[in-house]
Design goal:
Shape: elongated
Strand order of the largest sheet: 6-4-3-2-1-5-9
Number of domains: 2
Low-confidence stretches: 1-29
Number of helices: 15
CATH topology of the largest domain: endopeptidase fold (from Nostoc punctiforme)
CATH architecture of the largest domain: Alpha-Beta Complex
Length: about 400
């Protein structure tokens, strides 16, 4: 692996070679830095959950630095003051920072993440403006921004920078192009490797995440931006004819990992299995006696109330736009606090008819909410969440019903 380091030094010194990495790089092409090209650098998936959506950056020649620089909008720090609080309320602070090519290639190769480049066919004036804009953006006073995982992330910042220097050509073209699926569809596709992450994301996303995307919106994914820029033509300008915005993709490093999935694998079966296990545990405890039933109903009711409270706070008290209008609140909501009262009464003297009907009403709300979501076109996620929660609800009703006061 040492053989590529001297080549990187030569590249940075304008010898115009992208380093060949023995046994791990696939395709290379010489880069003539004397022309001061602009390159779109796209990184594939990594191991961490926040790496599953990919990443990208812009590479430009910087006269002041005397070398190419990689401008990266994906910088964050878990050690930032109140990072967790900002994350939970949708006020996460990211920033943009330039790096050398050597730093970037070394970092992403060590993470075993595929890297590709595309040259952007900008005019000299557009390249100059982009370099100036990026340098200004990187200043301490300008580099921070409020990160939004769908609408304002590392990839949309790259998209917007390219759009700015092309006079809106990118936006005009991409807003007229249909994307693939929705925010929810892509989230399900990329998180399907982990059932807890998959089901958790479906629980917190509201119906707005199901709206069809344009290519402009879909550019929150670096891989989608990579494909979109190859379909866009730049008009003739500054002596250059009409031309594609981006050159074909060159792979400069290929990771030894499977490519990202291209289709969604619904997890209705997994959700149903988890839900049935929960229901079986609740009813099984009820078979042990009144105290067992009370404990099961009480814990499940508290869990549903807590989850519902979190969903409502995310809806009304945070900047997480796509957690609003969430039909999952019909399945889990603070009304389930009433179930704790029922559990206490089951433990003491058994549930009354009114208390039992309270649980039945909560189950009915969940069923009607699921039906409404399905009829509104949110079928897969609604059924997955129903499969997860309804067995526990039904088992709670049955458990309390075993010990009704006569």
């Amino acid at each position: 692996m040492r053989g590529w380091r001297p080549l990187l030094v030569l590249l940075i010194a304008l010898v115009s070679v992208v380093a060949a990495v023995p046994t791990r790089a696939s395709a290379q092409r010489a880069i003539d830095w004397s022309t001061k090209p602009v390159l779109l650098l796209t990184m594939g998936q990594g191991d961490e959950v926040f790496e599953k959506f990919g990443h990208n950056a812009l590479i430009v020649w910087d006269d002041a630095a005397g070398r190419p620089l990689v401008y990266n909008w994906g910088m964050f720090d878990f050690a930032q003051p109140n990072f967790l609080g900002r994350f939970l309320t949708g006020d996460t602070r990211y920033w943009m920072q330039p790096f050398t090519i050597e730093q970037t290639l070394d970092a992403y190769q060590r993470l075993n993440r595929t890297m590709t480049v595309q040259e952007l066919n900008l005019t000299p004036a557009q390249r100059t403006r982009l370099v100036q804009m990026l340098a200004t953006n990187a200043l301490e006073a300008n580099k921070f921004y409020r990160y939004d995982y769908y609408r304002d992330n590392c990839s949309t910042r790259v998209r917007d920078a390219i759009d700015a220097v092309t006079g809106g050509v990118l936006a005009a073209a991409m807003k007229a192009m249909p994307g693939d699926g929705s925010y929810r569809w892509h989230t399900r596709r990329l998180l399907a490797y982990s059932t807890p992450l998959y089901l958790g994301s479906q629980l917190v996303l509201g119906v707005d995440a199901d709206l069809p995307l344009t290519a402009w919106q879909e550019a929150f994914l670096p891989q989608s931006l990579t494909k979109a820029v190859m379909r866009i033509e730049l008009p003739a300008a500054d002596g250059l004819p009409q031309r594609p915005l981006a050159a074909p993709i060159d792979t400069i490093f290929r990771a030894t990992r499977a490519p990202e999935p291209r289709v969604v694998q619904p997890q209705l079966v997994q959700a149903a299995v988890i839900g049935m296990v929960i229901g079986a545990v609740i009813f099984g405890l009820a078979l042990l006696g009144r105290i067992g039933a009370a404990v099961a109903v009480g814990i499940w009711s508290l869990l549903c109330a807590c989850v519902g409270t979190v969903l409502l706070l995310a809806w009304f008290a945070t900047q997480h736009v796509f957690m609003a209008n969430n039909p999952s609140v019909a399945l889990a909501n603070p009304l389930w606090l009433a179930g704790i009262t029922v559990a206490v009464m089951v433990a003491r003297v058994g549930s009354s008819t009114l208390e039992h009907r309270t649980l039945q009403s909560l189950l009915l709300i969940a069923v009607l909410g699921t039906a409404g979501a399905v009829l509104s076109g949110h079928t897969v996620s609604a059924l997955e969440m129903a499969a997860l929660f309804l067995p526990g609800h039904a088992a709670s009703v049955a458990a309390a019903g075993r010990f009704r006061r006569r």
